[in-house]
């Protein structure tokens, strides 16, 4: 699998050797609050998630990327970003999570635009969906920045979340994205 770059980022497909980095990320306070209801994640939890993720890559040719910020003294792991099949639908679910000390500088949208473009070149699926915990205004602003639009509130994994979506056509009409 290929490593790719944007202006400020290096992205590499998640692999088994990333398990320790993902364990640290999934136990970051911001990530735990936004994704795991403040429940600490075990290495077994991360291992199961990574196995599922690797099956997504194998099936689709895209999935979640490990995201590194470029620095003069070498890349720094800041989070993960990507798309996967959304349940039993023909939609793709988009998500990103970054360490608490790495949010708010536009790195999420930069990673998002790359990962969405990469996925849309490899699939015919027509819709990208995303779920954001209520009250996470930073994530909502970032979602809007990349073109996702708020539709309504929906249950997601037993929790009422803000539901966003974007069609392939909406994304591709933004020529600067590709």
Tell me about this structure:
This protein has a single domain, classed as Gcn5-related N-acetyltransferase (GNAT) (Aminopeptidase, 3-Layer(aba) Sandwich). It contains six helices and eight strands, in the order E-E-H-H-H-E-E-E-H-E-H-E-E-H. It has an eight-stranded mixed β-sheet, sandwiched between helices. The model has no long low-confidence stretch (mean pLDDT 90).
Radius of gyration over alpha carbons? 15 Å
Tell me about the biggest sheet?
8 strands, mixed
Strand content: 25-35%
Number of separate helices: 6
Low-confidence stretches: none
Overall pLDDT score: 90
List keywords for this structure.
8-stranded mixed β-sheet; 31% strand; 178 residues; alpha+beta; Aminopeptidase
Task: Furnish the topology, listing elements before pairings.
Layout: E1 4-5, E2 9-13, H1 19-26, H2 29-35, H3 43-60, E3 64-69, E4 76-85, E5 91-98, H4 107-120, E6 127-133, H5 137-145, E7 149-156, E8 159-167, H6 168-172
Parallel strand pairs: 5-6
Antiparallel strand pairs: 1-2, 2-3, 3-4, 4-5, 6-8, 7-8
Helix pairs in contact: 1-3
Entry summary:
34% of the residues lie in helices and 31% in strands. The chain contains 6 helices and 8 strands. Helix 4 (107-120) links the parallel strand 5 (91-98) and strand 6 (127-133).
